[in-house]
């Protein structure tokens, strides 16, 4: 429930790897209106298809933001 943003960087030419960065809430008390964020980056080998994982995490982050904002 704490994941609020997901970013994906795909592999480019050369030695670049693919990356997914997840931003999440550190505090679980949503009613305090004081959000503390932290993020974690996951790296994947160049030929790994991370699109399904990104779609899943992005949808999860979107649904969590809707809950947090009371929509």
Q: Can you walk me through this structure?
A:
With 71 residues, the chain is an alpha+beta fold. The protein has one domain (3-68). The protein contains one helix and three strands. It has one helix at 51-68; strands at residues 3-9, 18-25, 37-44. Strands 1-2-3 form a three-stranded antiparallel β-sheet, with helices on one face. A hairpin with an 8-residue loop joins β1 (3-9) and β2. The protein is elongated and about 45 Å long. The two termini are 15 Å apart. The model has no long low-confidence stretch (mean pLDDT 85). InterPro entries: PHb_sf. It comes from Streptococcus loxodontisalivarius. This is Bacterial Pleckstrin homology domain-containing protein.
SSE topology sketch:
Blueprint: E1 3-9, E2 18-25, E3 37-44, H1 51-68
Antiparallel strand pairs: 1-2, 2-3
Give a count of the beta strands, DSSP E runs of length 2 or more.
3
What's the Cα radius of gyration? 14 Å
Q: How many distinct folded domains? A: 1
Q: Strand-residue fraction?
A: 25-35%
Mean of all residue-level pLDDT scores: 85
How many helices does DSSP assign?
1
Listing every helix as H and every strand as E from the N terminus to the C terminus, the arrangement reads EEEH
Portion of residues within helices: 25-40%
How would a crystallographer describe the biggest sheet? Answer: 3 strands, antiparallel
Distance between the termini: 15 Å
Kindly report the spatial arrangement of strands forming the biggest sheet: 1-2-3
From the spread of the alpha carbons, the general shape counts as elongated
Estimated structural class:
alpha+beta
**Poorly predicted residue ranges:** none
Protein name: Bacterial Pleckstrin homology domain-containing protein
Organism: Streptococcus loxodontisalivarius
């Amino acid at each position: 429930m704490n994941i609020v943003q997901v970013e994906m960087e795909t592999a480019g030419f050369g030695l670049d790897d693919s990356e997914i960065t997840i931003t999440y809430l550190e505090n679980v008390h949503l009613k305090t209106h004081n959000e503390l964020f932290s993020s974690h980056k996951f790296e994947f080998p160049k030929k790994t298809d991370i699109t399904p994982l990104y779609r899943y995490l992005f949808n999860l982050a979107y649904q969590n933001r809707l809950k947090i904002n009371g929509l």
